[in-house]
Design a protein that fits this description.
With 222 residues, this protein is an all-alpha fold. It has two domains: 106 residues; 90 residues, no CATH class. The chain is built from eleven helices and no strands. It is globular and about 55 Å long.
Length: 222
């Protein structure tokens, strides 16, 4: 019975997505509304902060330029709220903040350690950034740059929308408000479960899976 109920909710979730985007992840409206601007930000990252260029800037200790480029790329998306964008700009404006951010960001994206270790190190660095009004260590700021840089490995977390989506999908999402690995791993598992449950959609990466979660949980798609 539980399995039948689970299938019912998964089918309901798929039907909601297909109601808006009849051809799924291949639908032109989906590409225009949800995917293309995120992929464009990723392509800009590949141009401006690819591993070779990022390494060159780090060796030159050009931390402010790294921070400026990262902020510029994020600004091409609507993933962060305006107060989060402002908190980030304020935090990386001082030389000390730019250095902390640049070094941690490089390791998060290009480091060789397991993802959990890189995630936690980046979280620690965000917590050390200078703060004016709004704190920098939030889920959107923790996850947005990995998502832009490498959407095959990282996913973006909007807390409220994701919690609603998980409830609709009947997925036990282990959420805690402060960024932590257990919650992030739970989100990755949620996304991978959607990929497994919806093989006909043929998700390319976590951009598609995050978009599915967004459509399922956002009031924009009621």
């Amino acid at each position: 019975m539980r399995s039948r109920e689970t299938l019912k909710f998964k089918k309901k979730s798929l039907n909601k997505f297909l109601h808006f985007f009849k051809k799924g992840f291949q639908d032109q409206k989906y590409l225009d509304w949800e995917r293309n601007y995120k992929w464009n930000a990723h392509e800009m990252w590949e141009e401006l902060l690819n591993e070779k260029e990022f390494t060159r800037l780090l060796k030159a200790k050009n931390y402010n330029e790294i921070a400026t480029r990262a902020v510029k790329m994020e600004s091409k998306t609507n993933l962060l709220f305006s107060f989060e964008k402002m908190a980030l700009r304020d935090a990386v404006k001082p030389k000390e903040g730019a250095e902390i951010f640049a070094k941690a960001l490089y390791n998060y994206i290009y480091g060789k350690e397991p993802l959990q270790q890189r995630f936690e190190q980046f979280s620690d660095a965000l917590g050390k950034l200078p703060r004016k009004q709004t704190r920098v260590l939030t889920w959107p700021l923790q996850t947005v740059f990995g998502f832009i840089a490498n959407p095959s490995e990282h996913i973006f977390l909007k807390p409220r929308v994701t919690q609603v989506a998980a409830k609709e999908y009947k997925y036990d999402f282990e959420y805690t408000s402060k960024p932590n690995w257990k919650t992030y791993q739970s989100l990755l598992n949620f996304a991978n479960q959607i990929r497994k449950d919806m093989p006909t959609l043929k998700a390319r990466d976590y951009i598609d899976l995050q978009s599915f979660i967004w459509v399922l949980g956002s009031a924009e798609y009621d």
